[in-house]
Design goal:
Helix content: 25-40%
Number of strands: 14
Strand order of the largest sheet: 2-5-6-9-1-10-11-12-13
Largest sheet: 9 strands, mixed
Number of domains: 3
Structural class: alpha+beta
Strand content: 15-25%
Order of helices and strands: EHEEEEEEEEHEEHEEEHHHHHHHHHHHH
Bound molecules: adenosine-5'-diphosphate, zinc ion, magnesium ion
Distance between the termini: 68 Å
Shape: elongated
Length: 482
């Protein structure tokens, strides 16, 4: 069927999405040995007989990884298993020297939680595989064609988080993953860098007629490494499934790869080819039984999380939900905002509006702590606007100077003559604007109130935006005896 043509008019199908997220933990050492984690070191320099899978070596679970796993489980509102078991997940691949990955299977570390509107099915601990480096068609790596293996990553601690299928659009999936990422970042348990693979997301996607409760057959999109690709991939897969169903065909359960460059979806393996991992309990590791002290320590290590912070901003500071989330989900922004609030107690909503609509566009993705705008400086600028010491548009100019050169808002206003125009100066300007716009005056007197805009505009032009619009309107009315 040609793209875009549909046989069923009206409402489409409802997408159903569940996510599986792998998080590399930023522990000092690997999951089951004492090798340091690797950050771009020379290949194969952070290995030992244990993570290289030599026979006869014994794994020991990393206490810090368990601690981070417990923190994540608790932060996601899960029940922590009193006793969880490590299993061997058996399969052959060149990046897996033991021939199995140590993971958790029937009894995960934590289960049945929630983050935002999405239920968490399970949270478990495992180890990462090594990294295959593929030589391109023409490329050779260290003299070798084909692929080579860098074992530095092998054995890095991972937490896998599996959601229930509670997500219903690509946008919701992206927004929820942002919340999860912000939460993990706040916990300080991972770098959560998607481009570098410390946060990786698979999306399970199915569709169903709206209003039905049974789930359709799902397909799994593997390893999306940016928010944009996650959303694009889900949209493309939902569209593909809709085309299939509308053409009377069936969605088959398979694992898919989304190519963000071409937008194509290709099959990696179907259900028939699915692995049988022959899980069995890892005989070299004791069950994981968190003591009360371990649980207490994990609980005590939880900071205020982004979702709670957003709620607090809404409740205590009366911020709009979207503003509260923007500030709370980008932790550095929330910190900047709260520092500014503490510095000069400006109006919280006004300050939030300056941060989100004026500062954020200047920052892009950068950390506000690295910008030249100091929190207390912005707070004072906002205070000056509220006190009518400076007009809103002049204050934006001041912020521009603060962002490029730094400095104190009061000093910048004084140096550049940006103080709010008022008194005799403004009266003279208003007088001139009225004389210069007789047609507008005529219209206003004739009842056309909007015509006052032309005179206000003339005043703003002459004062270069240093006047207060409301005050100017009042002066014009008074002068025209309206
Ligand atoms: P599998 O056994 O194939 O791994 P699971 O039941 O473990 O499947 O679920 C894996 C992920 O897929 C979870 O995030 C879950 O929410 C999601 N999921 C399961 N069934 C569906 C479905 N029909 N549509 C969308 N997502 C689904
Ligand atoms: Zn090692
Ligand atoms: Mg599964």
């Amino acid at each position: 069927m040609p793209e875009g043509s549909t046989t069923v008019p009206g409402r489409g199908y409802e997408p159903v999405i569940g996510l599986e997220i792998h998080v590399q933990l930023s522990t000092r050492t690997k999951m089951f040995c004492s090798c340091a984690l690797s950050f771009g070191e020379q290949p194969n320099t952070r290995t030992c007989p244990i993570c290289l899978g030599h026979p006869g070596t014994l794994p020991v679970a990393n206490a810090e990884a368990v601690h981070f796993g417990l923190m994540i489980g608790l932060a996601l509102g899960c029940e922590i298993a009193p006793r969880s078991i490590f299993h061997r997940k058996n399969y052959f691949y060149p990046d897996l020297p033991k021939g199995y990955q140590i993971s958790q299977y029937d009894i995960p570390l934590a289960r049945d939680g929630r983050l935002g509107d999405v239920r968490i099915h399970r949270v478990h601990l495992e180890e990462d595989a090594a990294k295959l480096v593929h030589a391109g068609a023409s490329g050779r790596i260290h003299g070798a064609a084909g692929s080579v293996v860098d074992f530095n990553r092998g054995g890095t601690p991972l937490v896998e988080i599996v959601t229930e299928p509670d997500i219903h659009s690509a946008g919701e999936a992206g927004e929820w993953l942002r919340l999860l990422r912000a939460t993990l970042k706040r916990l300080g348990v991972s770098d959560v860098n998607m481009a570098e693979g410390s946060l990786r997301c698979d999306a399970n996607v199915s569709i169903r007629p709206p209003g039905t409760a049974t789930l359709g057959t799902k397909a799994e999109l593997k390893n999306m490494n940016s928010f944009r690709f996650l959303e694009q991939g889900i949209d493309a897969e939902v569209a593909r499934q809709e085309r299939l169903v509308r053409a009377g065909e069936e969605v088959v359960q398979e694992t898919l790869h989304y190519d963000p460059v071409s937008g194509d979806i290709s099959s990696l393996r179907s259900k028939e080819e699915a692995h049988d991992y022959r899980y069995f309990p890892e005989p070299d590791l004791v069950p994981l039984v968190p003591s009360d002290a371990m649980l207490e320590r994990a609980r005590a290590a939880l900071p205020e999380l982004p979702a709670e912070r957003a709620e607090r901003f809404e409740r205590d500071l009366a911020l709009a939900p979207a503003t509260a989330r923007l500030l709370a989900f980008r932790g550095e922004l929330g910190d900047f905002y709260e520092q500014a609030l503490a510095a000069d107690s400006p109006d919280p909503r006004e300050l939030a509006s300056w941060v989100t609509t004026e500062l954020v566009p200047r920052l892009g993705d950068a950390d506000p702590a690295e910008s030249k705008v100091a929190p207390d400086g912005l707070a004072r600028l906002v205070g000056m606007v509220s006190a009518r010491d400076v007009s809103r548009s002049a204050a934006k100019e001041v912020l521009g100077v603060m962002a490029s050169e730094g400095g104190d808002p009061q000093a910048i206003v004084a140096e550049r003559g940006l103080a709010l125009a008022g008194g005799g100066e403004l009266e003279a300007v208003v007088e001139r604007a009225i004389s210069a716009n007789p047609a507008a005056v005529e219209q206003i007197r004739g009842g056309k109130q909007q015509a006052i805009g032309a005179i206000v505009g003339a005043v703003m032009r002459e004062t270069k935006g240093r006047a207060d619009g409301g005050a100017v309107q009042a002066m014009i009315r008074e002068r025209l005896k309206l």
